[in-house]
Amino acid sequence: MKEFFSQMGKYFARYKGYIAGTFAMNILAALFNVFSFSILLPILQILFKVNTERYEFIEWGTGGINNLVEVLKNNGYYYSQLMVDNYGPSTTLLILGIMLACLTLLKTSTYFAGSAFLMPLRTGIVRDIRTDIYKKILSLPLSFFSEERKGDILARVSTDVNEIDGSITSSLDMIIKNPIFILVYVGTMFAMSWQLTLFTLLVVPLLAGGIGRIGKKLKQSSLYAQSKWSDGISQIEETLGGLRIIKAFIAERKMEERFTKVNDEYRDASMRVAIRQSAAHPVSEFLGTCMIVVVLWFGGYLIFSGNSPIDASGFIYYLVILYTTLQPIKDLSKAGYSIQKGLASMERINKILHAENPIKEQPNPKSIEALNDSIQLEHVHFSYNEGHEILHDINLTIKKGQTIALVGQSGSGKSTLVDLIPRYHDVTAGSIKIDGEDVRNLSLRSLRGLIGNVNQEAILFNDTVFNNIAFGVDNATQEQVEAAAKIANAHDFIMEMEQGYQTNVGDRGGRLSGGQRQRISIARAILKNPPILILDEATSALDTESERLVQDALEKLMTSRTTIAIAHRLSTIKHASEIFVLHEGSIVERGTHEELIAMNGYYKKLNDMQAL
Which of 57, 159, 405, 552 could form a disulfide with 573 if both were Cys (CB 3.0 to 4.6 A apart)? Predict the structure, then answer.
């Protein structure tokens, strides 16, 4: 339970009012339950005439708290005898039966109210966990997702959260209600006979110990089962993304066998968890019955020996309370099993929620509204892992309004270099400054607000054309969106679509061609109107006609902006103010196109290869 509250405590704290309400209702339900059982005593006395003793009324409060139970018992018998004398035994039974029904109604009403108070808590915790995961995903750096499988993250957001809903939150009623009922029932038993109750409590550890042995490995088994389902989700996600390749290479059978293997392993792990969990009820039922038998024998022994602190009818009532106590104990053990399963899922979710985010803002970050002078990279080093440096001693200055280009073979560090400017990663050594201010001192929102991106893969969302262009710009008007689309050479093909700007582009823009997707992403950057523009091989995946249209749109976008362009096709960056050639993480050449050709170095080799 300690682990449970340490993991879930922060979520419970948000719903303190509802928890207080359910506590109050369950305390009332337990008290009404005890009082409703107590009415059985005079009913038994009347039906079986096991007690011919006459009772006299005792003033309430006589003897203080120590004699409260005796006074309640005496006066209860007194009033029942009075009703028998006045109305006869049959009518008295009817009156007592009506009182029992009324108390039962109060008990069930308060019980329902206690459960109703928990509904906002149950649904709210699941909502809060999903929201926290999504917020964390948005805040984590890109490096986190390059190390994690997308399918595993999806499994944690969906399957693991559902497991918490089905195990932890569904057990909240039992966790809160049952300890209250157990305390009230045990308190009643102590009031009736502390000797008999002490003996009973000596037997209880046997019940708890037997159940505890079964539950020890449940969490570990659940962790293994959930990890197997994460593998399954990952394979489904890979299959959906690579279906074209799977069919092209006739690999359906191979993929089916891979998934079947993982699915069978998940089934076997889940079966072991389910078997272990299903053992809770029969084991607790058997041990509970054993406890009743032992207490029945001991209580009977005391009564037969004449040393019993309670009479036969009181002992029957005691056994009723004891048997009633067993149910919340068994429910609590079931909740314990469910919580162990849920904690296994919570542990997996915490790998996201507690993931370290190295991209941190200063306590009072500075805000930046525009680029006034230049971007400076001074002795920049960067590595994802210690011992393997991606960028080594990069020094360059980009003046306001300049267009600079980065070229080099794949893996030379071009994309990593431009990712450092908006702080998708932080430099390992050195600094990046905008107008002389280190980007680590700037607020992320204002820094990234200065920068527009057009990437090789045009990333669109499953939404309308309008919303994709207006993405990231609040309250954009139809006129502004259309103006941006016209500059990006996208307006004409958008208007030819069935619903124009309100047409849905499909998953990742799948209903559009590559050139259309790219022009919409350029329109998005135009609407944002950033002073700094990063073009990451924006035309490399396009055919000649689409490239011409996109290149024309890019040239309009680059007008009066500071642009950093990454290009494999050197023809697209010939007119750059300065070209930087990267090789194995270092700048090996720099200059204009003509100057680099004249150097007869690495750039000249790249140019000649493309000319061929």
Answer: 405
